[in-house]
Amino acid sequence: MRSTVVGSFPVELKEASSTKDKLLNVFGVYDPYKESIKQAVFSQLDAGIDIISDGQVRGDMVSSFSKFIPGMKIEDGNTYIVSKIRKPTGEISVKDLLYAKSLINKYYDGNVPEGKGIKGIITGPSTIIHSSRTSFYKNKEDAIVDLAYSLKFEVDAIEKKVKPVYIQVDEPFLSTGMVDMKVAREAIDIIAEGLSVPLAMHVCGTIDGVYKDLARFNVDILDFEFAGNNVNIDVLENNIALFNGKKIGFGCVDSAVNELDSYEVTEKLISRGIDIVGEDNILLDPDCGLRRAPVDVAFSKLKLINEIKDKH
Ligand SMILES: [Zn+2]
To answer: Domain total for the chain?
Structure first.
């Protein structure tokens, strides 16, 4: 049984303090987010997380991708689609992932234990398009397919250069009922094409109305929230046969509540998850990203997951 995170970690921006950083700052090349990535990586590793993220510290899940994609423009924090969506102007997250990977290596003095590693995370095409405004595309579905081809460049770059444990696509919009599931699935097929590492899809929210569709996606891991949601666990239990062959990312601490979850409640939930899914097919993680939690609370939540995991 392994543990992971959904992705984001709280950001604490540090001003340049060392002489080298101050010098970089003078030339406009100091990167305040590097410290945040370091903090996110070391916190996850200290807490015992097996498959970590770079903390996704550079901004919200839509604009951190849309700002690199020709055809999309950001104004007042909103993404607008103004022309045909094309391939990204460069790699989006590869540099941060490589830095995070080097930190893992450093943390373990060059001997990274088996099963520990990093994952690449992208926001899914359906979620990005449904969070954007378009005057160019007559229908969102064409935009979703074009964006899937665009994001495929990033996914391939992550696979080739970072060699992650797996790649995760975040598609929270799939639980809203607003998305055409056939097109969403086609978009994931485009991303999954030829991939040699496992592909995961994170969908937060209640899956009651969409689980049958989600079970049909061409992914190896489906990640849902089970702590801050009292519907999903029953849906999983009653329909486990539908998810046959897939691993389940099992959100077991509530990322919407900024205090530490109860040990007893979390342990009970995890035991129930293991009974339903089986130890070999379950990945423990928080319900969603932890961006909004205070740093110490985010750390405690991750530590709690691993304390319970280590007892099993
Ligand atoms: Zn989520």
So the answer is: 1
